[in-house]
């Protein structure tokens, strides 16, 4: 079961990191649009389409990567107080009752939506450039499929935790600042010149 978890995590990590480069493309494209519009009075016809296509693709495909890092928003003011086995039982129930039905609906409905778009080679009606968007709508299916796969890994994590009483290790390439402070007790922040005064002030109080 741990092998399945690690295999799926590696897949979603590779996909997430690969599609993260879309941020640079979007930044360069929008930067070019701003310069072209305000410096040369020559706005582009494709910048708006490029921005929502790249951002939407990143949002959809990055969902599985975010799930693998346990980074989706949750109301954890109660969750963090529970024992790992309780957390795992609640998560497993929620995955079965809500996650998988919702994601399956996204995949099937998105498949029909994208299929019609491919059939007509649909183009954007909001842009004078007439940018094709059938490939963009396909990302609904791709993103949903990746979420389904990652959901299997999360269910396996729950089962392992219920059996052992501890959550299995996660791939950690990015850590929230809050987690870093909790792990180090804020020690790493004291060395920063920006935070020396604030930490000292906090100690005085």
Notes on the structure:
The protein is globular, with a radius of gyration of 22 Å. The protein has helices spanning 2-19, 22-38, 47-68, 76-79, 84-119, 134-137, 139-164, 177-184, 187-190, 196-204. The protein has 10 helices and no strands. Helix 1 (2-19) packs antiparallel against helix 3, helix 3 packs parallel to helix 7 (139-164) and helix 5 (84-119) packs antiparallel against helix 7. Mean pLDDT is 84; it is low at 192-205.
How would you concisely characterize the structure shown here?
The protein is mainly alpha-helical. The chain is 72% helix and 0% strand. It has helices at residues 2-19, 22-38, 47-68, 76-79, 84-119, 134-137, 139-164, 177-184, 187-190, 196-204.
Any chance you could write out the topology, listing elements then pairs?
Elements: H1 2-19, H2 22-38, H3 47-68, H4 76-79, H5 84-119, H6 134-137, H7 139-164, H8 177-184, H9 187-190, H10 196-204
Helix pairs in contact: 1-3, 1-7, 2-3, 3-7, 5-7
């Amino acid at each position: 079961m741990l092998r399945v978890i690690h295999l799926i995590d590696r897949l979603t990590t590779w996909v997430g990191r690969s599609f993260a480069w879309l941020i640079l493309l979007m930044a360069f494209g929008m930067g070019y649009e701003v310069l072209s519009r305000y410096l040369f009075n020559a706005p582009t016809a494709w910048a708006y389409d490029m921005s929502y296509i790249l951002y939407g693709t990143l949002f959809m495909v990055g969902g599985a990567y975010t799930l693998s890092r346990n980074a989706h928003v949750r109301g954890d003011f109660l969750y963090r107080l529970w024992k790992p086995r309780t957390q795992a039982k609640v998560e497993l129930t929620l995955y079965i009752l809500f996650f998988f039905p919702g994601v399956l609906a996204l995949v099937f409905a998105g498949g029909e939506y994208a299929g019609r778009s491919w059939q007509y080679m649909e183009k954007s009606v909001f842009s004078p450039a007439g940018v094709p968007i059938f490939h963009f709508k396909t990302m609904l299916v791709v993103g949903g499929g990746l979420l389904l796969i990652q959901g299997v890994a999360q269910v396996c994590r729950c089962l392992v935790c219920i059996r052992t009483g501890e959550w299995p290790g996660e791939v950690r390439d990015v850590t929230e600042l809050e987690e870093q402070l909790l792990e180090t007790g804020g020690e790493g922040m004291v060395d920063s010149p920006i935070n020396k005064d604030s930490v000292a002030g906090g100690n005085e109080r």
